[in-house]
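step=encode ok
step=design start
structure_in=
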């Protein structure tokens, strides 16, 4: 039997409290509100955010975006909104145990689905063996949890949700790409096959729904994916 993940440590950010049922979605790690704007447009929905940084909460409020001060790892509500979003957030958590805790909170709160935008860490070991990295893999980005798609698949299986649809966005096919950096200075000049990806948009179904409805939620938007997208179901 596996050891259960420890509870998250309480921080200066409080347990978030709001009238959640008044909203269509909750955005965890909302920052100054840009992710709420994005998801409001994409899903045609009204959202509220949770953010640990009081400075960013105030910036969002000044811009007229609804964000409350709180720690998403302490969020605990059941089926209060249609969906929960996490954009460029999970990679900043301390480790995979805390990531799974936050995912469980999001799944508990959502009635239909969760949406995750996550920088890709696929192929990191292979790239390092070839003496290069993608910029956001390096220290200084605050990316403490290099979550792989296989990690997500295992977590979602344990949490009992799915199917999971992934849109991998912006292929990186050659080391000349601007985001590729040499580990010891100069980077190699070579093709990357299979390609690396800039990020993944991950959609996790919480409750069964008609196939056409799920397709409308998960379909790639051409204006967001101008450089290409690889679409698949995560198993």
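sequence_out=
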């Amino acid at each position: 039997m596996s050891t259960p993940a420890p509870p998250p440590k309480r921080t200066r950010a409080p347990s978030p409290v709001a009238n959640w049922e008044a909203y269509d979605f909750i955005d965890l790690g909302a920052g100054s509100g840009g992710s709420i704007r994005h998801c409001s447009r994409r899903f045609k929905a009204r959202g509220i955010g949770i953010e640990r940084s009081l400075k960013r909460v105030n910036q969002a409020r000044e811009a007229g975006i609804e964000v409350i001060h709180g720690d998403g790892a302490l969020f605990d509500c059941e089926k209060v909104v249609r969906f929960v979003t996490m954009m460029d957030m999970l990679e900043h958590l301390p480790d995979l145990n805390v990531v799974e805790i936050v995912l469980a909170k999001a799944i508990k709160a959502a009635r239909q689905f969760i949406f995750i935008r996550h920088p890709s860490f696929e192929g990191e070991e292979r790239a390092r063996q070839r003496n290069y990295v993608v910029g956001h893999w390096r220290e200084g980005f605050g990316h403490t949890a290099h979550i792989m798609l296989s990690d997500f698949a295992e977590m979602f299986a344990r949490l009992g949700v799915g199917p999971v649809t992934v849109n991998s966005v912006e292929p990186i096919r050659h080391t000349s790409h601007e985001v590729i950096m040499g580990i010891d200075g100069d980077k190699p000049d070579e093709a990357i096959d299979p390609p690396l990806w800039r990020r993944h948009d991950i959609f996790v179904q919480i409750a069964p729904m008609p196939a056409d409805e799920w397709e409308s939620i998960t379909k790639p938007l051409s204006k967001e994916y101008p450089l290409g997208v690889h679409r698949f179901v995560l198993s």
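step=design ok
step=annotate ok -> Helices lie at 34-43, 54-62, 96-109, 124-129, 149-159, 211-218.
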